[in-house]
Amino acid sequence: MTANLTVAALLTEGVEQLRLSPGGTESAATAHLDAQLLLAHVLAVPRARLQSHPEELPAPSRTQHYRRLLARRAAGEPLAYLTGCRDFWSLSLTVTPAVLIPRPETELLVERALAVRTAADGRVADLGTGCGAVALALASERPGWHVVATDACAAALAVARANAAALNLSRVELRQGDWYQPLLGERFDLLVSNPPYVAQEDPALTTPSLRHEPPRALTPGLDALSCLRTLVRGAPRHLVPEGWLLLEHGATQGADVRRELVVAGFRHVRSHRDLAGHERMTEGQR
Prior knowledge:
By secondary structure, the protein is of the alpha/beta class. The protein is about 40% helix and about 20% strand.
């Protein structure tokens, strides 16, 4: 295969490869979008440039790089890891295989946090922050909030720190430690978390995309609810009176999380559905 192909020809080649590969994308529309995003990334141009200049001839080295990324995408590697970025809320975030890729449904955590805490000031902690998506989104919306973000993984915190610097949100305080350990003796108005909640034996973990994401960010082991229980039971020691705990969870775990919150003494316990109609996060007030 010659390397001296036009942008249009490379896109056609990419769509065909992604469509035919068993590990690749399924629909023609998704394959076309992925091929565009990969080629735009390799050429360091906006996607619109590909459409307005389909006759351009990329350098052979760029073409080779594009084909290498295509092969990885066809094998199921997530697009965000290939391009190194993911949009979340109003932010463009760097992501690496050290962190979970932020999902659109996690924006519900941000929406509800802003809804239950409307004050211009406040102390907020994001537990298990990963790339910093939720913490940085909240800090961008509420400049007066003191936001603390924790994670047990040093590599994840390094990604979050880079994102905070790139977005001029370095006032977000990043701390390493497991769940509440870095918050010893402190209380907050709001606690938020998107913890691991997929059972270790769940077949979903064998899908091509999830196989590439860090297992520690996806599953707590055999008991899918173990991290959620830890967060619920430890929250009263770290919330001010009338403070809120907001938790993302699996689509079938809402009832269990509500029960845990009620047993722990929370009030105004309620779950909220994502755009797909699944119960995706549950909140409660101390």
